[in-house]
């Protein structure tokens, strides 16, 4: 390495075109060697301290960042557990976690966090209640104690429950005005069968469920599903590991319960029409989704090959869709392709784009043309090489922050992958070949079987009868 740096120093003094070319070549060599050395020594898994504390899966990863600690956690208590009952209850329960506990109100909690500049938030998705916190090292005991208190003994007051219902309903009412949200809901209802965690409750049904929800249902739900048995908690940054373990032991002592995620059904489209229009009057754009089940969970064979291929088609401004449908033909505001909804179950492949109503037909035709070319002719060697470099680089950049590392640790556990995956991901991507990528596309996708959803002021369409 010293020898390379010495050569680079000499080349910096060169002023000729040849010198500039050599400088560029040397710089690439230095950067390449640096990346290789970093990759060789920056192993993550061996430096994670993983223990069970009162049933909680605790992963602690110290970094060189001084004084800052990021905490990320999850436990299974999301919307899938409302199946068979009121579908609003899981979200309403999660919304009440930070609205006071049985020993202190929400204002007292907020004052404690504000006084030390810490943040603590809870959210609910299909499968999980997620915990996100950030604080200084000295304030970790306070934040961990609040996490424990709010999860274990939320006040669940009638006053806050009524506010949560109004807030929840208001959010859904706003989403009814979004062409993106309406298209996404319609696509998911076609792609996923009843009982699948990725199948949403239709907005109209959810609004009715919120209205009917009772506080007693929330209390029963909290008692039944909240517990440490399947909870994961990660902390990254300037860690005092024995202190964190002790604080968790104290804060969660005696807490019991918790349930595993239910087994997911396969994602299989039902008998609904494969082309649907959600008419929304007076919209300036139409959201179009082309999608089909990938039948792949994130950690399964072929997933990364299909992910590379999907990124070539539609990731960012370097994807084929943006390069052609937008940049060359000027037919869309934005368009992308991705694999999604596959952390806990087999997910889907989807293309999503927005078009002006008067350009809708041309935009859809252009999109389908690019999809067909990608599927029939495959991806090129250069596209695969460039996209692999991009994916590996993005992954490493994401691990460079305490927040990014905490997110990746939690995601790895939730995906059912070993921690060593964090160290092998780059090599797994690097060895993928164009043949593997093209084979994965052909194996798991079929353009003629994709559903198409259009949401917005679609020319010629009329509002659905109520």
Topology of helices and strands:
Blueprint: H1 2-12, H2 17-41, E1 49-53, E2 56-62, E3 68-76, H3 89-95, H4 106-116, E4 119-124, E5 128-136, H5 140-152, H6 158-175, H7 179-191, H8 203-212, H9 215-225, E6 232-237, H10 241-251, E7 275-279, E8 286-293, H11 303-314, H12 320-328, E9 334-340, E10 348-355, H13 360-377, H14 381-398, H15 402-414, H16 421-430, H17 434-444, E11 451-456
Parallel strand pairs: 2-6, 7-11
Antiparallel strand pairs: 1-2, 3-5, 3-6, 4-5, 8-10, 8-11, 9-10
Helix pairs in contact: 1-2, 3-9, 5-10, 6-8, 11-14, 11-17, 12-13, 14-16
Number of strands: 11
Report the portion of residues in β strands. Answer: 15-25%
Widest beta sheet: strand line-up: 1-2-6-3-5-4
Overall residue-averaged pLDDT value: 90
Helix/strand/pairing category: alpha+beta
Radius of gyration: 25 Å
CATH class of the largest domain: Alpha Beta
Helix content: 40-55%
- Quick one: CATH superfamily of the largest domain? Metalloenzyme, LuxS/M16 peptidase-like
Shape: globular
